[in-house]
Design a protein that fits this description.
single chain, 210 residues, mainly beta, Methylamine Dehydrogenase, Chain H, four-stranded antiparallel sheet, 1 helix, 3% helix, globular
């Protein structure tokens, strides 16, 4: 049996896109039917919402990563192209693959977009939104191809693809950037903020187990 679920992801330069995962073909049902019975007895799920970015465009990769905390949903779009900086800026294209993050909130069963978030030093190729995590009112966003050096008062482009993480906080429904984090020993091509937690390759025939 050959591995087919995931291909290793190399470090692409800013101008290239990460390879997409190839889905495994479905294997035959389990011979004893145990897993099928468990699925039949599982609680029913229903779609509650269909969510799109306010400035959705081809190849933005909206939904590449998501994070959910209570009634707040965070969605990354690392190939979004606007030249905006900060919160709820202009969504006009001008910085290819700079990346963006969208925050949606739920009231009852209705989801609405609360914020359109960019790094304060957003630039083309940073891929801000490659990774996201939310804890209550605090949001962390990775931009693995950001190029500044640690300790820069004004972010520079002296360390290509060193990467950065950004911390945002929400107060009374308003988001603001609190910090930009760099590794103390940052070097070029460290890609800090990249999403490293990936499923391991597995043989396609191992989907069903007794």
């Amino acid at each position: 049996m050959r591995p087919c679920c995931w291909r290793p992801c190399s470090r692409p330069p800013n101008t290239q896109r990460r390879p997409k995962a190839r889905p495994c073909p479905l294997s035959s049902p389990p011979p004893n039917g145990k897993q099928a019975n468990q699925l039949n007895n599982a609680p029913a799920f229903a779609q509650q919402a269909y969510i799109k970015a306010s400035n959705a465009e081809s190849d933005d990769r909206f939904g590449d990563v998501i994070a959910l905390s209570g009634d707040t949903l965070v969605v990354g779009a690392p190939y979004e192209d606007s030249a905006a900086t900060g919160i709820n800026g202009s969504q006009t294209n001008g910085a290819t693959d700079s990346g963006a993050v969208y925050v949606f909130v739920r009231s009852g069963s209705t989801w609405t977009q609360q914020a359109y978030i960019k790094a304060n030093n957003s630039e083309a190729g940073d891929q801000f939104g490659t990774s996201v995590a939310i804890f209550g009112e605090t949001l962390i966003v990775g931009a693995p191809y950001e190029d500044s050096a640690p300790g820069d008062i004004i972010p520079s482009n002296s360390l290509t693809n060193a990467g950065a993480a950004y911390v945002f906080v929400r107060e009374a429904g308003v988001w603001s950037q609190q910090a930009m984090l760099k590794a103390a020993n940052a070097e070029a091509n460290d890609i800090l903020g990249f999403r490293h937690h990936r499923p391991k390759p597995r043989p396609c025939g191992s989907q069903w187990r007794r």
